[in-house]
Amino acid sequence: MCTSLSSRIVLITTGGTIAGVYDQTGTILMNADQSGWASGIFELRPELRTMVQIEFDSCLNVFSEDMTPTDWATLAQRVADWVSRGVTGIVISHGTDTLAYTSAALSYMLPNLPIPVVVTGATKPLAAKGTDALRNLCDSVVVAAHSSLRGVYVVFASTIHGGTRVRKMASKRRAFESINCKTVGIIRGLDVQISNNTLLPGQAAGRFTADTRHDPSVAFLKVYPGLDPAWIDLAVESKRAILLELYVDGAACTQEGNAYSLTEGLKRAKTRGVPVFATSQQKSALDLTRYESTSRLHRAGVVSLCDMTTEAALPKLMWVLGHASEPEQIKMLMLRNIAHELSEVISSDMPSH
User: Fold this and answer.
1) pLDDT score of 103
2) 168, 239, 316, 331: which one is catalytic?
3) Catalytic-role residue among 33, 97, 211, 249
4) Which residue in 104, 156, 225, 282 has the fewest CB atoms around it within 10 Å?
5) In terms of Cα–Cα distance, which of 274, 290, 279 is closest to 341?
6) What is the pLDDT of residue 265?
7) CATH code for 218-348?
8) 3.10.20.600, 3.40.50.1170, 3.55.40.20, 2.60.120.260: CATH of 8-199
């Protein structure tokens, strides 16, 4: 898809490796504007110089490991502010550790987004030899400048991923992968080649406005041998919802009489009206009716999120808690495909609870 490029792109920086040059204490020495990003982008892709105008906005100055749900809301509102000012594309620089969580959160907080918002990062600092920062930025500007695209995407290593379908898999140039789906496409120079239309947005359902309501009252537990069931009870007492990351096929310790069985605690969560949702630790869709051990989880009230990634599920659950109070309403919203975080066929065939 090689279309005419739009003209006004804003580069929003949040901090992290790609955002500038830091000293050993983490203090930024040069921000995006000072470090010559624009000149670097135009030097790498000189044809962009006459096609796009790049503006800069230092929205946040935090490493990605320090990013919070409040920061997601701040960033979403900043995107909305720039949309209201008429920009035609946005690129967000972000550290790679939590980039997938941020891209998913923005996907929920920015419904009916009329322009492309591209989140990108780098595996090597901007000033390091062999850095991938400028190339990722150039590719992101190209994607953000294509007016036929809209929604949230992640661009890394000349590959386009859906904002709710990506995961960091390694600290190397091709650090990110699309999970449980094909990538959206690739970038070749100024050409954006779309290979997976299923992750592109459909017709806008209404007027665009940032919807940043959220509640971080979520307990996230990754199952492992020896996980103390007391953590379930503690979560029930202190949180509004629980997210479990189960073994590959959706299993966890549920054996009757086993001191580490989660079953009774999960039943108490259901009785207390604290919904429990589940994702997989690997690339797989969860079917909690497949085995007897997984069926115990199903009967205890655990709701499978099928092929949704943990990175997409956690910010979605926080966003849903900002919009719903009753357990059944929370479940309904979690099983609704809001931003391509669920495969339509799988989500429509999910067992009822």
Assistant:
1) 98
2) 168
3) 97
4) 225
5) 279
6) 97
7) 3.40.50.40
8) 3.40.50.1170
- Per the CB < 8 A criterion, the answer to whether 330 and 299 are in contact is no
> Which of 13, 14, 88, 96 is an active site residue?
96
Active site residue 108: no
Burial environment of residue 104 by CB neighbours within 10 A (0 to 12, 13 to 18, 19 or more): buried
Range of lowest pLDDT (24-38, 189-203, 221-235, 253-267):
24-38
Active-site annotation holds for 129: no
Among 33, 182, 249, 291, the one annotated catalytic: 291
Largest CA distance in the chain: 71
Closest CA to 211 of 339, 116, 314, 319: 319
291 an active-site residue? yes
Quick one: average pLDDT of 219-227?
Answer: 97
H-assigned helices in the chain: 37-44, 69-84, 99-109, 133-144, 230-238, 263-271, 292-299, 310-321, 327-334, 344-348
Catalytic: which of 13, 14, 17, 279? Answer: 17
Active site residue 260: no
Residue 137, Cα to own-chain centre: how many angstroms? 18
- Every domain of the chain with CATH number 3.40.50.1170 lies at 8-199
The identity of residue 313, as a single letter, is: A
Q: What are phi and psi of 101, to 5 degrees?
A: -65, -40
For 137-147, the pLDDT digits (tens) are 999 999 999 87
Tens of pLDDT along 24-54? 455 544 455 555 667 778 888 888 888 899 9
pLDDT in tens, 138-186: 999 999 998 789 999 999 999 999 999 999 998 777 889 999 999 999 9
The answer to whether 9 and 141 have CB atoms below 8 angstroms apart is yes
Residue type, 168: K
